[in-house]
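User: quick one, fold this
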Amino acid sequence: MTNESKQIYAADILIVDDLPENVEELIHFLEEEGYRCLQGLTDSRQVFDRVSVRRPDLILLDVRMPYLSGIEVLKQLNQLAGALPAIILLTAHLDDSTRYEALRLGARDFLTKPFDQLEVAQRIQNILHLQLLINEQRERAESLEALVRKRTLELSSQSRMEPLTGLPNRSALLEALDFNHKNRDDITIYFIALEGLDEIARVQGFAVADQLVRALVIRLDEMLEVGISSLCQHSLLGIWNSTEWVLICQSVLDAPTRGVLAQKVLEAFEAPFYIDQMRLHLSARVGISFDHQELAPEQLVRMAALALPVRDGQWQEYNDTIDQSLKRRSGMRTALRGALQRGELFLVYQPKVDIKTNRIVGAEALLRWENSIYGKVSPVEFIPLAEASGEILSIGRWVILEALVALKRWRALHQVDDDFSLAVNVSPLQLMQADFAQTLLDMVSDSGVPPCCLELEVTESGLMQDMELALKQLRRLIQYGFKVGIDDFGTGYSSLAYLKTLPISVLKIDRAFIHELQSSIQDQKLTGTVIDMARHFGFSTVAEGVEQSEQLDWLSSMGCDLVQGYMFAPPLKENELLKLIDSGVEHLINKF
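Assistant:
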C-alpha cells in the first residue's frame, strides 16, 4: 500500500443520515473497504458542533432530514472559519435548483440512493484523493507563507539594526521617537559624537576599529544598566551613523539630572580601551535636546546635533541662540561668496614699532568685511567660514594683491622707508596649494615690489597639515628674499624639532602671553624663553597685543625686537597709518 493510500484510508469520515440503518450500512461497507476512522450521526443538529471540535476530511450528508436539511447544514458549516471539509450529498432525488444551491454552498459530489457500492467506493476515493492534494497544497502554501512571514520579520529586524553592534539604526531610532511622539511621551535626546574613531581606523585598521566599537557598546550598556537606570528608567541607545550615536530617554529630565546623565555618558570615554594589547582612547561630545510632546522626531535629533559643543569631553543643551547662530553663519557664508565683487572687503593696517628706535618699520594687513545685512563682521566669524568654504583662496589672493598695490604706492610716494615691510596672513588652505609659491612669485614680480618688503605670516597649525609641502614652498620663497613669520607662536604645536628646520625669520609672540606680562611671573618666563630661543635661531621677534607701558618695558628688557598693539594704534585705515608714520609714535609712548 502506498503512502497516499494509507492517508486516504486513514481519513476522518463523518456520515450524517436520519435513518440509523443507512448509517450502519455505510459504516459497514466502508470498514470492509479499509477505512478506519468512521463516525455516524442521525441528528443533523449535532453536525456543526462535531465539525467545530474536529473537522473531518469528508462528510457524507443526507439531503432530506428532520430538524435541519442537508442544505441548511451546509449553510451552517459555511459560517465556520477556514475551508470546508469535502462534502458528498446523499439523496434519492434532487431537483436542479437544490443541486445548484448545494454546489454553491460547497458540495463536491452527489450519491444517489439506493447506492451502487462500486460507485460509492470510487467516488469517495476520488474525493479523498482530491482532498489530499488540496490539503498538501494548502500545507505547502501555509508553510511558504510562514517562511515568508518569518523572513520578512528577519529582514525588517535587520533593516532596523546596525550590523556591527546590533544596536538600533537610524530608522529604528526614528520609529521609536515617532511612537513616543504619537503617544505624547516626553523625550530627552543625547546626541553623542565620537572623536578619534576614524583616526584609529586609518592607523590601526578597520578590524581594530570594529573591536573598539563593540567594546564601547558593552561599556555604554553597563553604564545604562547601572549608572543611569535610576535617572532614566526607559532608555534606548542606537547608531545614527558610524561616529554619531543617539541615546533616547523617555522622559524630560530636570536640568540638573540632564547634566548628571550627560556627564555619566562622557565618563564612559575616560578610561582607555585595550584592544589586541593596544591601549586606545576615544573621546566624545554630547548635545542635548528635550521636548514636551510638541516637536517632530527628526527636529529633536537635529536640535541635539546642533547643540554639540566644539571641544571634546563637553556637553551642551540646545537653545534658540544656537539655531539663530547657525542661521547667521549660513547666511554669512552665502553673503561672503559675492563680498569681493560687491566691494565689501577692505584692508586695515596695524603698525609694528621697533622697540629700540620707536620707529614704525612695518605693519600687518588685516582683512575686514562690512555687509549691508550683517554690518561689520568680525574676522573671528567670517575667516573660518571662508576657510571652510574655500572662498579663502580667492580672498587671500585679493589680500596679497591689495597689499602689493598699497606697498608700491607708498614706496613710490616715499611715504614709507625702503626697509618698510607689510605682513599678510596666509591661510593653511593657501599654503597647501601646490602652486602657491609660484603664484606669489609671479604676483610680486608683476608688482615691482621687492620680495623682502612682503612678510608672510603662517600659523603653526597650518604648517602641520602637510609639513613637507609647507617646507618646500617656504624654502623657495625664502630664496627669493621673502620674510616668513610664525603667527601666534606658542599656542599650537610649538616644537624645537621643527623650528630648527623651518625656513622662517620671524616669531610672533601671541597676545595670550602679553596680556598679564607685567604681573605674571609665568608669562614673563615663557616670553623671555621664546625671545632667547628666537635670538639663538637668528629670528626676530614681534610681540602683539601690547597695551601698557609696563608690558613694553618688560619686552624691551627681554630684547624683543618689534611690538604692535593698542598702545600705539588699533588697525588703521591707509590714510591714518600714513599720518602716524609721518608723525611718529614718540608722543603715544609719552602718554603712558
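User: anything notable?
Assistant: The chain is about 50% helix and 20% strand.
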